Amino acid sequence: MRDEFERIFGAAPAGVWAAPGRVNLIGEHTDYNDGFVLPIALPHAVRLSAAPRTDGRLRLYSAQGDGRVTDLAVAELAPGAVTSWASYPAGVVWALREAGHQVGGADLYLDSDVPTGAGLSSSAALECAVAVAYRDLHDLPLTGAELARLAQRAENAFVGVPCGVMDQMASACCTEGAALFLDTRDLSLRQVPFRPAEQGLELLVIDTRVKHDIGDGSYAAVRAGCERAAELLGLPALRDLPAAELAAAQPRLPAELVPLVRHVVTENDRVLTAVELLDKGDFAALGPILTAGHASLRDDFRVSCAETDLAVASAVEAGALGARMTGGGFGGSVIALVPRESTEQVGKAVTAAFRTAGYADPVLFTVTAAEGARRLA
């Protein structure tokens, strides 16, 4: 990272930072409903080498880009002003300045092994890598949660994607060997041990290679439906509807909103149940919760697709203890909790099912719970 920075920008960087992508174990589409989530950070990360500038220029280079440096004036950053991938790092600088932090320009070299479009939060990893680097370069008194909020604001207001805060909180605040039990209303959090390998289990990620893009309007539509349902029920958010009152609430809603509400309410309960199981060290019992969560996303929220449904069904049939789509939906990845001795056969079964259906081969890899955003050097 240091050598490549110097090759592109002609001087040594001030440091190197990293921020990971994430897998959400359970708790999908609950974050913008003030609910509960349970993600882990991935070993896959965006890595960033950086040096401050004094001339007000923000220069960006991505190892995955087109080989050119993007050169922006920090003072001219505004929503809509940047439309390429550079809107994510530029948005973080804008959000820091909007929050009153006196930050200027920088040279940033970025390299990522987080799969893009796979529902693994490559954008949040990019945002949090920039946020943590800027915090250290400018000695800003910001916590991980505060950095996550600023990164979320960058994505919401600058990039224009109405995401919740889970992805940024996972990237900024997760710890190695633990899942992040997060209350998205007040950002209270607890690290819950998640080391399935101790019980002979692996978490298999199945990237369906169906590109996931929550900026295309579909994600915004389901979020708007949830917010409308909460308003009709007279609630601050759907998180405030107890499961015991779900049936009584349904006649007060238009028919098209009932499934959205049912998913959010039952998904919050699935998160709480999952935390209880992990606290007891019963990792295997998480499997059926994953599968039930996928059924809810497929049937009630309708954010799945044929490829993710096939990946879940074929993984479970081949021996996975449970599986579900992870991320915002409309493509992306599936996670499967698998006995270690069955990982290979599950992978082969999913690949065979995809070939039979005429789909491109999925990308398969196992993951462990990794560390959140941090300085590397």
TrEMBL record:
Residues the record marks as site: Transition state stabilizer: 22
Domain GHMP kinase C-terminal: 274-354
Annotated pathway: Carbohydrate metabolism; galactose metabolism
Catalysed reactions, semicolon-separated: alpha-D-galactose + ATP = alpha-D-galactose 1-phosphate + ADP + H(+)
Positions that bind Mg(2+): 123, 155
Sorted UniProt keywords: ATP-binding, Carbohydrate metabolism, Cytoplasm, Galactose metabolism, Kinase, Magnesium, Metal-binding, Nucleotide-binding, Transferase
Compartments where found: Cytoplasm
GO cellular component: cytosol
InterPro entries named among the record's database cross-references: Galactokinase (IPR000705), Galactokinase_bac (IPR022963), Galactokinase_CS (IPR019741), GalKase_N (IPR019539), GHMP_kinase_C_dom (IPR013750), GHMP_kinase_C_sf (IPR036554), GHMP_kinase_N_dom (IPR006204), GHMP_knse_ATP-bd_CS (IPR006203)
Positions of the catalytic residues: 167 (proton acceptor)
Top-rank lineage group of the source organism: Bacteria
Domain Galactokinase N-terminal: 4-51
Pfam families: GalKase_gal_bdg, GHMP_kinases_C, GHMP_kinases_N
Gene Ontology MF annotations: ATP binding; galactokinase activity; magnesium ion binding
GHMP kinase N-terminal domain span: 88-173
Keyword RNA-binding: no
Gene Ontology biological-process annotations: galactose metabolic process
PROSITE patterns recorded: GALACTOKINASE (PS00106), GHMP_KINASES_ATP (PS00627)
Binding positions for ATP per the UniProt entry: 62, 117-123
Annotated binding of substrate, by residue: 28-31, 219
SUPFAM superfamilies recorded: GHMP Kinase, C-terminal domain, Ribosomal protein S5 domain 2-like
Its EC number(s): 2.7.1.6
Role played: Catalyzes the transfer of the gamma-phosphate of ATP to D-galactose to form alpha-D-galactose-1-phosphate (Gal-1-P).
Family the UniProt entry places it in: Belongs to the GHMP kinase family. GalK subfamily.
Full protein name: Galactokinase
Organism of this sequence: Kitasatospora acidiphila
